[in-house]
Each structure stands twice: as C-alpha cells, then as structure tokens.
Design goal:
The complex is a heterodimer of chains A (327) and B (701). Chain A is α/β, with parallel strands linked by helices and 327 residues long. Chain A has 9 helices and 10 strands. The longest helix of chain A is centred in the last third of the chain and has 26 residues. Chain B is α+β, with helices and mostly antiparallel strands and 701 residues long. In chain B, helix 3 packs antiparallel against helix 4. Chain B is elongated, with a radius of gyration of 35 Å. The chains are: A alpha/beta (327), B alpha+beta (701). Chains A and B meet through strand 8, strand 9 and helix 8 of A and strand 2 of B.
C-alpha cells in the first residue's frame, strides 16, 4: 500500500490548476436524469418546483393543491399545473488501473491522467450534491468497495484514497466490472469508463471486445449515459521508434507475447492497425450512442476536462487529428 | 603436402569464437513495456535463450574464412624429394635461371619463374657448407652474381630481379647464358674444387631444352625444371602478323593476316575446338573482330580487311586476342604493326643496253616480269640510263638514291670511279643491288670499282662449249636450284627454270672468303645467280643476261617468280620502309645524318647518334609496341616506323623430354618446397567479400 503524501485528499489526485478551473464548472448532462432524490439536474419527472412545465387533466387521486384554478376557469375543466423537477445524478466511475496505464512519466503518465479525470469528475459531482460510485480494475481483480454511489466529502476522500492507493498492475477485467456495475445502475445514471481501450480484453480477442461494447450499448439502451474516456500516451499514438535499433516490446498487461524488431520495420504496420482499431471504436460508439472522449497524454488535463464537460452538456465534438498528417 | 608452420594450426581453436558469438553475441534489445503490443506484427521471432546459432550462412562464411586464414598462416606446401640433386661436398656453383618469356606461364597461381625461384631457394638452403654460389640469368638485363660463400647475395639478386618484372621478352636461350656462367666458375690457380651449373627453367627449346649435357671445361650441368608437372596449362598465342595492300578492294585498303596458335588443350587425346576472339585495332580503336575455332596444338590464320581513313599516311595497328582474361601467358596475346596505304618498294632499273625495239631492250623482260608479278602493286619501278644515274649521284651525292630500296644494274658498263663509292656506300647502308651481266660488262673495272660489294669477282665471259675439251655441248642448262637459299623462301617444288639454255655466261673467281652463296648454278657447276651480304645490304649477281642475248631464261615459266623473289630478297636487307617489325632484343638500324630520337610505346624518348657510315643503331628494343624515330625537329625519319614484336618461339610451352644427367660421386637430394598457400589467397578474398555482403544484407534486414 502506498503511503504517498496527501492520501485521502482529492488534491493528491486532481492537480490544483484543474481544481481552480473546475471552480466555475458544473457537471451537467444534456438529457434529464431520474434520481431518487432532489438534486440539481433536470429530471424527467415533474416536481414541486416553481418553473412551469405543462398542464394535465385532473384524475381522481391527484393532490387538489396542484389544481391550477386560473386554467380551470379558462378551460372549464379540471387541470393540474405541473412544474419542472430537479433530481440528483448517480455517477459511476470505472477506472482502468491495469499495468498498461502505468506508461509515461510524471504528468504524462496515463494512470495519473486517468486518476485526475476520475477525481475531477467525482469532485464536481459531489460538490453539486450528486452521488458517486467507483469501481477499479487492477491485477485481474475488481475493487468494488466504493461501488455503491454516495455523496459527501467522506465519499470524495474515499475515492481519492482508492485512486492513490495502488500502483497500476496486471490487467483490468472490464467485462466483470461492467457485470458488477450494471445491476447497481439506477435510472438514467452516468457511467464513465476511463481506460486506454487499446486492448481491453487481452488475448480473449476481438469478439470479447465487441461483446463488451455491446454490453455498454445495452446499458445505453436503458437510458444510461455511457462515457468512454480514452487516455492515450503520445508514444502510443505516434510510435516514435523509427530507427533501426532493436526493441523488444513487452505487453504491459503480460497477456500477449512480446514482439522484437527494429522500430522502423514495425512502425508502419503498428500505425495502420492502431488507426483501424481507433476508427472501429469510434464507429461503434457513434452507432450505439456511446460517448467517446479521447485524451492524449500531452494535452493539458484541464483542457481535456473542460472539453469533456462541454460535450456532456451538449456541445458539438471538436475533431482533432491524433497524428499530424493522419485525419 | 606439409605445413611450414604447423603450430599456427592451434589458431583453429579460434573457430569456436564465431560459434559462441552467433549463440550468445546477440545484442540485448531495448525493452519497452507497451500497451499496444497487439498492433505490432512480429517480424522476428523473439528468442529468450538461444539453443541453435542464428544466421547459419554468415556463421559458415566466418568459420570458413577463419579456417582458411589459419591454414594460410600455417603455410601449406608440397614437398618434392627428387627434383634437385646437389653435390654433397663443398663445391662452386652458378645458378642459371631461364628468363625467357615462356617462364611467365602461370601455373597454380604463380609464374614458372616464381616456382623456379622457390626451387632455387631450396637449393641455396641445401648447398653443403663451404660451397660458393653465383647467379646468372638468360635475361640480358638480369643480375650477375659472382660465386660467394654467402648465398644471400644470390637470393637477394634473384628476388630483386623477379620483383622488377622478370621474365621479359627478348631473353637469350639458356645455352647462350652458359658461357657467362662458365666464366664465373673459372677456377683460381691451384684450386681443385668441383664445379657445377644448376640450370632452372622450363623444358622448352629456349630453356632447359637448349642445354648441352656439360658446359665448357667439363662442368656438370644439372637441369631443374621449374615445375614437375608434365601437363602445363594451355594458352593461346598470336604468332605472326603481316599485312599487304589490297588495291583490288580499294586504293587505301589493306589486308592484315595473323596466325594464332593454341598451345596444348588436347584432353585425353581428344582435340576439342575452342572459340578465340581476335580483334583488329587501328589507331587504338577496335575496327574489326572475329571469332575462330582453334583446335588443340594447331595454327589458325585470320585475315582482316580494312580500309584506312583518308588524311593519314601511317596508322599504328594492333591485332590482339580478346576475352582471354584467363590466359596463363598473356604476353603474346597482341602484336603490333604499322599500316600505310602507300608503302611501296622503290626499284630503280638502270638500263645499260636500251633499244628502240622493245623486245631487244635489255630490261624489257625484267620490267614485264616485275609488272606481272603478284607483288607488283607494292612496287614502284623506275628506269633510267647509266648516264642519268651517274649525273644524279654527282649532283645530289648519297641522297640521290635515298628512296631506292633495290637498284638493278642491267648490263651496265662499270660505273665511273667518282660515282662507284656512292653505290658501294648505298649498298652497305642496307640497300639491295642486282647486277646482271651482258656485253657491256667488263670484269676489271667492275672488280676495281664495285669489288667491295660483288659476291664474287668477275673473271671473263665465255661462250659455252668453247672451253678446251668441251665441243659436244653448245649450251648450258640450269641445275636444280638450292631451295634452302633464303632467296627461295616460300617456294615449293619445281621453280620452273629447267630447260633454260645459256649460250654465254660470265665466269667468276671462286673466293670462299667473300661469303657468297650460290642460289642457282649451271649444270656445269658454274654459278648462275650468286648472292652475298655486303655489310647491311645484299647483292645478287646474275652471270648471264636478263634478256635473251645470252640465254633464254626470260622465256622460262620460272622467270617471273625468280625475279620477284630476287627483288624481295634484296629489299629484305633494308627492312621495309614501313611495317617493319623487329623482334624483341634485335637492333634496329636507320639511316641518319644527325642525332635522332626514338619514341617508345610508353612515351620514353631515347637518343641515338649516327656512326661514321651514316647509320644509327637502336638496340634497346625490349619494349613491345609501336616505335617512331624522329629527327631533332620532330619530323619522322623515312624508315623510322617499326614495331617491336615478341619472339613466337618463346610462346612454345610444350615440354620437351629431358634426359637427366646422373651426378658422379656423392650427391644428395633436396626437398623442394612448393608453396601451395598462394592459391588460398583469392579464396580468402572471396570469402571476405561474401562475409561483408551477408553482414550488410543482415543489417538492411
């Protein structure tokens, strides 16, 4: 167990400049939510607020206090006045803490970026009174101790502690994580999965990967918002080993055979297959209504977060080429 | 086969190094823990621990290379036991080395001379202590080392001589080098030591085949062949080239004939044919090429026809064998000559008895014969009267006859006293002179004025059959001629002179000291046509008339060829003005009145000075190719173009059987070490290149 300073403090996960930036931001979804309690997100249900939404005919059993007398006078029949309601949001964070996320140094470390994004989203949600649950996949196992969504500073501290607690290791069992989270999703929850999504199912193959995405699509069909935050390192995008030096590439998760060769001979094939994989992922997400947000290690985390929040709130996506010269 | 440095075979242990290197010498690649391994296509199998060496072909090349290098350093050599017998007691010896061109034949990657050098080294090592050894070569420019107790002097001189480019063309035969060796072995007064000459060479007529069994003074000669093998590699030589004008094709056309010979090549008694390419180069550019099939040990003649370009008078030409890179004796693969469209023989006929009636004219038959002969196209015949000749000589001196190659005095009265010395000098400087007698020829003035060059002195004309006791025959016939006389070179069978009847002949004074040779004689034994070399020139004397006055010789079918051969023989004294060829080592004489410069093929300029007779001799003819003799102002001397050729006799490499002489008294055999490592060197180079190429291909991946 790590004993890094600031453990349990969200400041150890989310850099200060990001926290400063988030001070004026809010986690707002484009679609209304259905929370068990009153919150600050537009709800699909009518409520007891002040903002008028609609009239509807009176049926026996309705609360007579909700009768709109002026409207009854105009229409000569009984109508009820309905007002907008605001519910709280259930945010589920699923973070890949496999060894693949350990790539990169300092602020370009993928796990660091993933933790910062997860911590920032948790901070925003809890600050605005939403409930947050967290599942962590690491070393082939699931840390589901914080899976039940709760609000409050205790939950934030717990999340910060869990995110800082262990170094990335092993692989992240995505199908099992989804299997654990899915029954706990209340109506219209927000599920954010943070990973590199380069090889989410390891040697189980592309079929398992497609099945994982189909599972997410089914959750989306149940009116949950599914967000895939893909954290990539610049090296993974551009493959900078372009000389004749012999390099032995070992799978960080330890599930694939190592590959050895001169970078220059591997590069073109790698880039082509990566491009194909990313395109396929984009197309699948677009088709199934999943929300894919891609973050590259040298992008500032704050900027990436603002973009993500904007897109959650309904801003159109800004497409940028991952690699110069590759659209 | 043995190894001179067997200890170095321990180096074979080093063969394990490449194997280990190929097993373990794999550079540890940079390790990267990467998330996108699934997108990497394996280009090489990742081997964590090698059980079999990688890059087998590279490993094999390296192992072979290393093994050969070790073998090379261990110096494999074959040891012969019987080839050199050495007198076992201390003695005086001279090593005579054949420096003729045939010693350049490549056998087993080295020339015969190098092989001979190895054997000489073995001999020098084996000489008993107290022996003295000297060195002589058959190369005129080769080393001479007086016998000395230290064999190192001879060894160093030999090594130096070989490094300077021996063998070169123009060497003497080994027999010619013997007197020099004998002179080096002349014993000191009162000294009684055994003497021996060890002759090293090939078994050709120029080499060991020329040696007698003993040298002068009873010195034993021990012939040691350069190599023991009886089968030497075959080679092809260009033995002769000649040319003539071809006016039947074009006034500027020439025919060039070459004879090439394949020496050896008969395999198991089968005479297989081999295609040989021959090219003609004129002015340095190839103008024609042909391929001929040459059987083993046979000659083949090749003929080129070429039209010389306008605007030039002389053209250097070369006939050479091409695409013969593997010829073991390349020095005879090319021959040089000068071509000229207007190179004609100048014949001046002095008519001593002209007549308005053509058939009675003294030179009517001679002129007709010369114009009808096969070589008439290359002959300019001019005719003049004796007075005109004398007048011209008086006016112009010796240069009056400067362009004339052959002068014919046909029934001319003896030249005047003031003119005669010019004629004598003219002949002695290399011209030809034909004298035919007749009614105007008087013995005494002729003998007095031209006696210096006459083959035999004239005595008197006699009418045949009037001699005392000779009444039955009124005419003389011609005896069968002596075809061995150089005048009849190329003539076979009956020369067509039988049946000639002479009614009157000029008798000559027999004088064996004059060196005259009789080409044709009458049936009575009296000479009919007698020749003699007069200094550089040649003179022929016909003891009857060249017209029908005294004999009916002109009516005989052999008259035309006889005159043609006679003129050609006389002209041969002065080598043809152009197209002259000189064998390597033979001097070239040119007429000169001032110092001249000879320009050699390599651009060297050598000055030669004329002697009192107006002749300059250039004797440094060891460089093969086109030579030019220039005056001080750079203009060309008339006879100043000649080409130096190698002697075809030196191309003969077929071994002659040698009778080996047994040594008297004590003797011991010497182990001759023939190095075999030289043939490994090209193999090592090839492997080295292969290794570099394989490594480069690996790197390029």
């Amino acid at each position: 167990m790590s004993t890094a300073p600031g453990q349990g403090d969200i400041g150890g996960v989310v850099p200060s400049e990001v926290r400063e930036l988030l001070r004026g931001q809010a986690l707002v979804l484009q679609r209304p939510v259905w929370g068990p309690r009153h919150g600050r997100h537009a709800s699909v249900r009518t409520g007891v607020g002040l903002d008028f939404r609609d009239h509807r005919p009176y049926v026996p059993g309705d609360d007579p206090r909700m009768l709109d007398w002026r409207a009854i006078a105009r229409r000569d029949r009984l109508v009820l006045r309905q007002t907008e309601s605001e519910d709280e949001l259930s945010l589920f964070l699923a973070v890949d803490c496999s060894a693949a996320m350990a790539y990169g140094e300092g602020e370009s470390n993928k796990a660091y970026i993933a933790g910062a994004i997860a911590g920032a989203l948790a901070l925003l949600a809890i600050r605005q009174g939403d409930r947050v649950g967290l599942a962590l996949g690491r070393a082939g196992d699931i840390d589901a101790s914080l899976l039940r969504p709760l609000g409050g500073n205790d939950r934030l501290s717990a999340i910060a502690r869990v995110l800082q607690r262990d170094e990335p290791a092993g692989l992240c069992p995505w199908p099992r994580i989804i299997g654990r989270i899915a029954p706990r999703l209340a109506r219209r929850s927000l599920l954010v999965l943070i990973s590199d999504f380069l090889d989410p199912c390891g040697h189980a193959g592309e079929e398992a990967e497609a099945e994982l995405l189909r599972g997410l699509a089914r959750l989306r069909a149940r009116d949950h918002d599914i967000v895939l935050v893909q954290v990539l390192h610049r090296h993974e995008v551009e493959f900078p080993w372009a000389n004749r030096t012999m390099i032995r590439f070992e799978d960080a998760r330890g599930v694939r055979e190592p590959v050895e060769g001169a970078g220059v001979r591997l590069r073109d094939g790698y880039l082509a297959r990566l491009r194909s994989h990313l395109d396929r992922l984009e197309r699948t997400c677009e088709r199934d209504g999943l929300f894919l947000h891609r973050v590259v290690s040298d992008d500032p985390v704050a900027e990436a977060l603002v973009t993500l929040l904007g897109r959650l709130a309904g801003s159109p996506p800004v497409r940028r080429p991952l690699v110069e010269g590759h659209p | 086969m043995t190894l001179l440095a067997p200890a170095l075979l321990l180096g074979l242990v080093a063969l394990t190094l490449p194997v280990i290197a190929h097993l373990m010498g794999h550079r540890e690649p940079q390790r990267v823990r990467f998330a996108g391994v699934r997108f990497l296509e394996p280009v090489e199998r990742v081997v964590t621990r090698r059980r079999a060496p990688r890059d087998i072909d590279l490993l094999v090349a390296r192992l072979l290379l290393l093994a050969l290098l070790v073998l090379l350093l261990a110096r494999p050599a074959s040891v012969g036991q019987t080839s050199v017998a050495v007198i076992a007691e201390p003695h005086d010896a001279v090593v005579v080395v054949d420096g003729s061109r045939s010693m350049g034949l490549e056998v087993d990657g080295a020339s015969l001379l190098v092989h001979a050098g190895d054997r000489i080294e073995a001999l020098l090592d084996a000489l008993p202590a107290g022996s003295r050894v000297g060195l002589v070569t058959s190369d005129p420019g080769g080393p001479r080392v007086e016998p000395a107790e230290d064999p190192e002097r001879a060894r160093a001189a030999l090594r130096d001589w070989i490094e300077r480019g021996a063998p070169r063309p123009g060497a003497w035969t080994l027999a010619d080098a013997l007197p020099l060796a004998v002179s080096l072995l002349s014993p000191a007064a009162g000294e009684e030591r055994k003497r021996a000459i060890y002759a090293f060479g090939d078994r050709t007529a120029h080499g060991l085949g020329s040696l007698p069994e003993t040298a002068e003074g009873g010195i034993a000669i021990l012939a040691v062949p350069a190599v023991e093998e009886a089968d030497l590699p075959e080679h092809v030589s260009l033995d002769e080239v000649s040319w003539e004008q071809a006016p039947d094709i074009d006034p500027r056309a020439v025919r060039i004939q070459a004879v090439l010979r394949r020496h050896g090549g008969a395999e198991d008694g089968e005479r297989t044919k081999r295609p040989i390419s021959v090219a003609l180069l004129v002015g340095g550019e190839e103008v024609a090429r042909t391929v001929v099939q040459v059987e083993a040990d046979t000659d083949v003649q090749v003929e080129f026809t070429h039209q010389l370009l306008d605007g030039g008078t002389t053209f250097p030409a070369t006939v050479q064998l091409v695409d013969l890179e593997d010829d073991p004796l390349p020095s005879d693969d090319r021959r040089h000559l000068w071509l000229s469209p207007d190179d004609a023989l100048e014949v001046m006929v002095v008519n001593g008895d002209p007549s308005e009636l053509r058939a009675h004219d003294e030179v009517f038959f001679l002129g007709t014969a010369l114009s009808a002969s096969e070589s008439s196209t290359s002959m300019h015949v001019t005719s003049l009267a004796p007075d005109q000749l004398e007048q011209r000589i008086r006016e112009q001196g010796a240069s009056a006859l400067g362009d004339v190659d052959v002068l014919v005095l046909a029934n001319v009265r003896a030249p005047q006293e003031d003119v005669a010395p010019a004629l004598v000098g003219f002949v002695e400087r290399g011209a030809g002179l034909l004298i035919t007698v007749g009614g105007r020829v008087e013995a005494e003035p002729y003998n007095a004025r031209l006696g210096a060059v006459l083959p035999l002195l004239l005595r008197e004309p006699v009418v045949v059959g009037t001699a005392p006791g000779r009444k039955e025959a009124r005419v003389e016939g011609i005896a069968p001629p002596d075809l061995s006389h150089p005048l009849f070179a190329g003539v076979e069978g009956d020369p067509g002179l039988s049946g000639t009847r002479a009614r009157k002949i000029f008798l000559l004074d027999p004088d064996p000291d004059r060196g005259a040779s009789i080409a044709i004689s009458f049936t009575s034994g009296a000479p009919a046509l007698v020749t003699r070399d007069a200094d550089l020139g040649r003179v022929a004397l016909l003891t009857t008339t060249v017209d029908r006055d005294w004999a009916d010789l002109p009516l005989r079918p052999g008259f035309v060829p006889l005159m043609e051969h006679t003129i050609a023989y006389l002209a041969g004294a002065r080598a043809r003005a152009l197209g002259a060829t000189v064998m390597v080592g033979q001097p070239r004489t040119v007429e000169a009145d001032a110092p001249l410069e000879v320009e050699t093929p390599s651009g060297r300029k050598i000055s030669i000075a004329p002697d009192r007779d107006g002749l300059a001799v250039f004797s440094d003819t060891y460089e093969v190719g086109h030579h030019r003799v220039l005056r001080a102002d750079g203009s060309l001397v008339r006879t100043g173009l000649f080409a130096v050729q190698v002697d075809p006799a030196e191309s003969l490499t077929r071994p002659l059987p040698l009778t080996r002489r047994e040594l008297e008294g004590e003797r011991k055999n010497v182990s001759t070490i023939t190095p075999r490592w030289r043939s490994l060197v090209p193999l090592v180079l090839v492997l080295l290149i292969a290794e570099v190429v394989l490594r480069w291909r690996r790197r390029r991946g």
